[in-house]
TrEMBL record:
This is HYR domain-containing protein. It comes from Parascaris equorum.
Length: 143
């Protein structure tokens, strides 16, 4: 966040419009969104009503890869099973990104696994800008 303080003159009956300078954004990628805490602010002078003491600027970079949060080990408890092999029920890996993310698991959900045998999983996330991130964890089905 960028914080910009705007100073203006006003009295009880008069508010003097002020031109608010937009912040300069320097980034390694030109694809970002700049938004302020005052939705109607633009290049024209803005008439502050005396209740606002600052403008908060938020810059969102759309080109960073997703951030994944994989568990170190995931135990899938399968009570009352008599089989030594089951179809893996993979957990949903949480992610953070500025856009929607597509998750791919390797091996895929439903892969046949042996009870009590660890299986290494790799999760790949791709956001709508093509940025890619990976994480991995152990899956163990417990009977």
């Amino acid at each position: 966040n960028f914080y910009v303080t705007a100073y203006f003159r006003h009295s009880r009956s008069f508010v003097s419009p002020v031109s608010v300078q937009f912040p300069t954004v320097r980034d390694n990628d030109p694809y970002y969104t700049l938004a302020s805490s005052i939705a109607s602010i633009d290049s024209a002078p803005y008439a502050f009503d005396g209740t606002i003491d600052r403008v908060v600027w938020n810059v969102t970079d759309h080109r960073w890869p997703p951030v994944l949060k994989c568990p170190e080990i995931y135990f899938d408890y399968v009570p009352n099973t008599t089989s030594s092999v089951i179809a893996a029920r993979l957990p949903i890996v949480t992610w953070t990104d500025a856009s929607d993310v597509h998750l791919m698991y390797e091996p895929v959900n439903g892969t046949r696994v042996e009870i009590n045998e660890p299986l290494r999983l790799i999760v790949t996330a791709v956001d709508e800008h093509g940025n890619l991130a990976k994480c991995s964890f152990w899956y163990i089905a417990k009977g």
